[in-house]
TrEMBL record:
NCBIfam families: 2_5_ligase. It comes from Sneathiella litorea. Residues 7-85, 92-168 form the Phosphoesterase HXTX domain. This is RNA 2',3'-cyclic phosphodiesterase. It catalyses: a 3'-end 2',3'-cyclophospho-ribonucleotide-RNA + H2O = a 3'-end 2'-phospho-ribonucleotide-RNA + H(+). A motif (HXTX 1) lies at residues 36-39.
Length: 182
């Protein structure tokens, strides 16, 4: 089964992200209910490895933190965009959680996608979409922003490909601890 680790988003944030859908011909939009912030993509694993990964992730102790979702952008070049995304401000907190997750997964012999970590919410795949329309979308939504979002957990998801889209299933959720206030 295909696995990834992500921050699940509350319904109101999924709805806000869903308002960005549209306006680009040939874009393959991700269903709003599938919106999440990927922390690590693992890929195909067998069931015994999934159990090892679950146990390793369960040993992570990390404080809750906040994230800010703001702006839109693309992966790929500006002239040949591939992925359209909503941005998540990269902070020390999210970067360190990502690193702890990668270390935990690799400690049990699994591998993680090794692309540079850039926190984001995937909106659409835009391989064949007209460049002008993508550029206009980026300009029109440059100021997109949601309320600051508290992150109190992360989740191991499985991904099942169907003929129309991927179906994500929450497998195990891991709570972050509340920082002690003084």
């Amino acid at each position: 089964m295909r696995l990834f680790v992500a921050i699940p988003l509350p319904e109101e944030v999924k709805e806000r992200v869903g308002t960005l859908r549209g306006g680009i011909p040939d874009a393959r939009w991700i269903a709003a209910e599938n919106s999440h912030v990927t922390l690590a993509f693992i890929g195909e694993v067998q069931s015994p490895m999934m159990m090892d990964i679950t146990l390793a992730l369960g040993r992570i102790k990390y404080p809750a933190f906040d994230i800010d979702i703001e702006g839109v952008g693309v992966f790929g070049s500006n002239k040949r965009p591939r992925i359209l995304w909503a941005g998540v401000r990269a902070t020390a907190a999210i970067n360190l959680l990502h690193q702890k997750i990668v270390t935990a997964i690799e400690s049990v012999g699994a591998t993680v996608d090794d692309r540079r970590f850039r926190p984001h919410i995937t909106l659409a795949r835009v391989h064949n979409s007209p460049y002008e329309r993508v550029r206009n979308f980026l300009t029109d939504h440059a100021l997109f922003k949601t309320e600051t979002l508290p992150v109190t957990s992360f989740t191991l998801f499985s991904s099942h490909l169907s003929s129309s889209s991927a179906i994500y299933q929450e497998e195990v959720s891991f709570d972050l601890f509340s920082p002690v206030s003084s």
